[in-house]
C-alpha cells in the first residue's frame, strides 16, 4: 500500500512537471503583438515644454509617457494590481477572488486582470469578457513578463491606457484633461486617471461628470483605507472639482514645427531653442496687431538672441488657419524689404571711407541713366548729414551711395551675412537700395543680428544643442557701431522709451509690406505686417504699423533693455567741422570732372540761346551757390556784391557774348548766348 502511495505521488509530480514543461513551451511559443507602437511626434521648447504634437493613425493622441508622478503610479498599482511586482503576469489569488465573488453575487463583481494582462489586451485590442480572449491575455501577459522588465510593462500601460475619446496614455490624458504634464499631479487628478481606463467612455468627465466623480471618489476612499492617503489628503481631494472639458493640445509655433518635422521626419521628438511662454505672448501680440491693421492683414515676427544665434520665438501668421491665409509661413515668404537695407549700405560706405555720420550728402534731383529715384514724400532737402539721411530714410542719398559702392557689393554683403537674396532680373541694380530685391523676415533678422554682433554675420538656428556658426563679416565693428548709434537716435513710437533700441522701419512699394526690425545689446526682433497674397494695404507704413509692435514685443521679452555696446577704440567721433576735408562732403568718384552739387547755376538765359533784346539790359537768374555773386561779361566784371537770385546786367551789344556768375566760394557757371537787335 505504501509502495502504491509513493508511486501515485510520483505520478502526480511527473504530471505536474509535464504540465509545467508544456506550459513553459506554450508560453515560450507565444507570438507577441507589436510592442514598439507609434507615438505622437512632439516639438518641445528649450525647457521641455510641449509646443506642438501630431496625432498618430486616425487622429489618436498617444504621447510617450515621459516623467510621471510617482504618487500616481503608486495609486494605480495599489488599486489595479497590488501584487504587480511579485506575480509573473497572472495573479492566481486575484483570479480566485474574482471567481468566488462572481459565484456568490451571481454576476462579475471584480476583475482578475493584472496590469500586464491589461497591457496584453491593449496591445492586441482584445476583448475582456470572453474566455478565449481572457486566456489569450493570460498567455501574452506571461510571455511579456518573461521578455520585459516590470518598468517596461508599466511604461506600456502608461502609453496605451484609454482615457476617453481619442486619448491614449497618461500623458495625453493630463495634457487634455488638466493642461499639464504628468510629472506633478494632485491626488484628485491621480485618482481620476486611475478610474478612467476602466470605462473610458462611460466616465468621461466632459460627458458623464457624475459617473466620473463617483469613480474618482471610490478610488480616493480606497486609497485612504489602505493608507496611501491620509484623512486630510483624502478630504481635500474629494472637494476638488473634476474637469468639465478637454483642453486643446498646444499648437505653438505651428509653422516652425511643421518645418522641423519635415526636415527630420524620422525623429519622434524635436527640441527647439524657442521659449514657450515668450512664443505664446508674441503670438497673441501678432494676432491683435493684424486684426487692428485691417481685413486680410497677416503678420509675422521673429525673436533671436544675437549673441548665441538662438531663435527664441517665431510667429508665421496671426493664426494657423485659413482666415488671413494663416497657413502661409510669412517668416519664410520672400518679400520686398523696403528701406530696411539702408543701414547696411551706409555701413559699407563707412567702411570704404566714403562717408562719416556727420558727412554732408546731397538730397536733390538726380538721374542714373533712365533711373530717377525719388524720396517717399516727393520732396528734396538739399545738403543733409548722413546721420539725418538715414534717420529720415531718404531715398536719393542712399541711391547715390549705392551707385558708388556698386549694387553687386551690396548683394555680396547680404550673402556674407547669411541671407539668400532673390533678384527679380538676376542682375543687381540700384533699386536694390530701396527694396528691389527679395528677402524673407528671417533673412532680415539674421542681417540685423550681424549688425548687432559688431558686423560679424552669424547663422540663426532653431534646434536646441546647436551652436551658431559664424558666417562672413558684413562690415567692420566701427561701421556697425556708427550704424547702431544712428538708428538708436530714431524717434520711437508714441509712449515708447527713446535711445534704447537701434531700429529701422520700412515700407515696400505700393504699401504691400510694413517692416520694423531692431536690436538692443542682447536681442533682435523683426516684425512684418501685410497681406499674404501681396496685395496692397492702403495707408500701411512700417513706422505706423510695425514699429509699435516691435517695441511691445521687446516689452514682452524682458522688463528692461540691454544696453548697446560702447564704441570701439578706433571709432572716429567728431563734429562736421573737425572731419578730414574728404569726409566733410560726399562726392562721387567723377566729382573731379563735374561742378560741385551746390555750385551756382545760371538758369536764364539758357546756354546757346538767341535773345532779341535791342539795347535793353540782360536779365540773369541764378540757382545754388552762396551770395554775394559777381558777374563777368566777356571776361570783364560788370556787377559785384549781388545778393539777389535775379538781377540785370548791362547789354554788351549785338553778337555772341559769354556771361559768368561766380559765388563767394569761387564756384561758377557760364552760358554763351547770341544777342540780336
From TrEMBL:
Signal peptide stretch: 1-22
Penicillin-binding C-terminal domain span: 592-672
Enzyme class, first EC level, given as a word: transferase
The keyword Nucleotide-binding appears for this protein: no
Domain Penicillin-binding protein transpeptidase: 299-512
Annotated Glycosyl transferase family domain residues: 67-224
Pathway: Cell wall biogenesis; peptidoglycan biosynthesis
NCBIfam families: PBP_1c
Family: In the C-terminal section; belongs to the transpeptidase family. In the N-terminal section; belongs to the glycosyltransferase 51 family.
Protein name: peptidoglycan glycosyltransferase
Taxonomic placement: Bacteria, Pseudomonadati, Pseudomonadota, Alphaproteobacteria, Rhodobacterales
Gene that encodes the chain: pbpC
Amino acid at each position: 500500500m505504501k509502495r502504491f502511495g509513493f508511486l501515485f505521488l510520483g505520478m502526480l509530480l511527473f504530471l505536474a512537471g509535464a504540465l509545467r514543461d508544456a506550459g513553459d513551451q506554450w508560453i515560450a511559443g507565444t507570438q507577441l503583438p507589436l510592442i514598439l507602437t507609434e507615438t505622437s511626434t512632439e516639438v518641445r521648447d528649450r525647457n521641455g515644454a510641449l509646443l506642438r504634437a501630431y496625432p498618430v493613425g486616425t487622429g489618436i493622441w498617444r504621447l510617450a509617457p515621459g516623467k510621471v508622478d510617482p504618487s500616481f503610479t503608486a495609486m494605480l498599482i495599489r488599486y489595479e494590481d497590488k501584487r504587480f511586482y511579485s506575480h509573473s503576469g497572472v495573479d492566481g489569488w486575484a483570479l480566485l477572488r474574482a471567481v468566488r465573488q462572481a459565484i456568490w453575487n451571481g454576476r462579475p463583481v471584480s476583475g482578475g486582470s493584472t496590469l500586464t494582462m491589461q497591457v496584453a489586451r491593449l496591445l492586441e485590442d482584445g476583448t475582456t469578457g470572453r474566455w478565449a480572449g481572457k486566456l489569450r491575455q493570460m498567455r501574452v501577459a506571461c510571455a511579456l513578463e518573461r521578455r520585459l522588465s516590470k518598468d517596461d510593462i508599466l511604461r506600456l500601460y502608461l502609453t496605451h491606457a484609454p482615457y476617453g475619446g481619442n486619448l491614449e496614455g497618461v500623458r495625453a490624458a493630463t495634457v487634455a484633461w488638466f493642461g499639464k504634464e504628468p510629472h506633478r499631479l494632485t491626488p484628485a487628478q491621480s485618482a481620476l486617471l486611475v478610474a478612467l481606463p476602466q470605462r473610458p467612455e462611460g466616465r468621461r468627465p466632459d460627458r458623464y461628470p457624475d459617473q466620473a466623480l463617483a469613480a474618482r471618489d471610490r478610488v480616493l476612499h480606497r486609497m485612504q483605507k489602505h493608507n496611501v492617503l491620509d484623512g486630510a489628503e483624502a478630504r481635500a481631494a474629494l472637494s476638488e472639482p473634476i474637469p468639465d472639458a478637454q483642453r486643446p493640445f498646444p499648437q505653438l509655433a505651428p509653422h516652425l514645427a511643421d518645418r522641423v518635422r519635415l526636415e527630420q521626419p524620422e525623429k519622434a521628438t524635436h527640441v527647439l531653442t524657442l521659449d514657450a511662454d515668450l512664443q505664446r505672448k508674441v503670438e497673441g501680440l501678432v494676432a491683435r496687431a493684424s486684426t487692428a491693421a485691417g481685413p486680410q492683414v497677416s503678420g509675422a515676427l521673429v525673436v533671436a538672441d544675437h549673441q548665441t544665434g538662438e531663435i527664441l520665438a517665431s510667429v508665421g501668421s496671426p493664426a494657423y488657419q485659413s482666415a488671413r491665409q494663416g497657413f502661409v509661413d510669412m517668416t519664410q515668404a520672400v518679400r520686398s524689404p523696403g528701406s530696411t537695407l539702408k543701414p547696411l549700405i551706409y555701413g559699407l560706405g563707412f567702411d570704404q571711407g566714403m562717408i562719416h555720420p556727420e558727412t554732408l550728402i546731397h538730397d536733390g534731383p538726380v538721374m542714373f541713366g533712365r533711373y530717377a529715384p525719388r524720396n517717399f514724400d516727393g520732396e528734396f532737402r538739399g545738403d543733409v548729414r548722413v546721420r539725418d539721411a538715414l534717420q529720415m530714410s531718404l531715398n536719393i542719398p542712399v541711391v547715390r551711395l549705392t551707385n558708388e559702392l556698386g549694387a553687386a557689393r551690396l548683394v555680396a554683403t547680404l550673402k556674407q551675412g547669411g541671407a539668400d537674396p532673390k533678384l527679380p532680373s538676376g542682375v543687381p541694380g540700384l533699386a536694390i537700395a530701396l527694396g528691389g530685391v527679395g528677402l524673407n523676415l528671417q533673412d532680415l533678422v539674421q542681417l540685423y543680428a550681424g549688425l548687432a554682433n559688431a558686423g560679424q554675420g552669424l547663422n540663426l538656428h532653431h534646434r536646441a544643442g546647436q551652436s551658431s556658426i559664424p558666417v562672413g563679416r558684413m562690415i567692420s565693428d566701427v561701421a556697425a557701431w556708427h550704424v547702431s548709434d544712428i538708428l538708436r537716435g530714431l524717434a520711437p513710437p508714441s509712449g515708447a522709451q527713446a535711445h534704447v533700441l537701434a531700429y529701422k522701419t520700412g515700407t515696400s512699394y505700393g504699401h504691400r509690406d510694413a517692416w520694423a526690425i531692431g536690436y538692443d545689446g542682447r536681442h533682435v526682433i523683426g516684425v512684418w505686417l501685410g497681406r499674404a497674397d501681396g496685395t496692397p494695404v492702403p495707408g500701411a507704413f512700417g513706422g505706423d504699423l510695425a514699429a509699435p509692435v516691435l517695441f511691445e514685443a521687446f516689452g514682452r521679452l524682458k522688463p528692461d533693455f540691454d544696453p548697446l555696446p560702447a564704441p570701439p577704440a578706433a571709432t572716429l567721433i567728431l563734429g562736421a567741422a573737425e572731419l578730414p576735408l574728404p569726409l566733410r562732403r560726399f562726392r562721387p568718384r567723377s566729382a573731379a570732372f563735374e561742378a560741385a552739387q551746390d555750385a551756382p547755376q545760371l538758369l536764364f538765359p539758357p546756354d546757346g540761346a538767341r535773345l532779341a533784346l535791342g539795347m535793353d539790359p540782360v536779365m540773369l537768374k541764378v540757382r545754388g551757390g552762396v551770395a554775394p555773386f559777381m558777374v563777368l561779361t566777356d571776361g570783364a566784371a560788370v556787377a559785384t556784391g549781388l545778393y539777389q537770385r535775379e538781377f540785370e546786367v548791362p547789354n554788351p551789344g549785338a553778337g555772341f557774348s559769354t556771361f559768368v556768375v561766380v559765388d563767394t566760394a569761387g564756384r561758377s557757371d557760364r552760358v554763351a548766348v547770341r544777342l540780336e537787335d
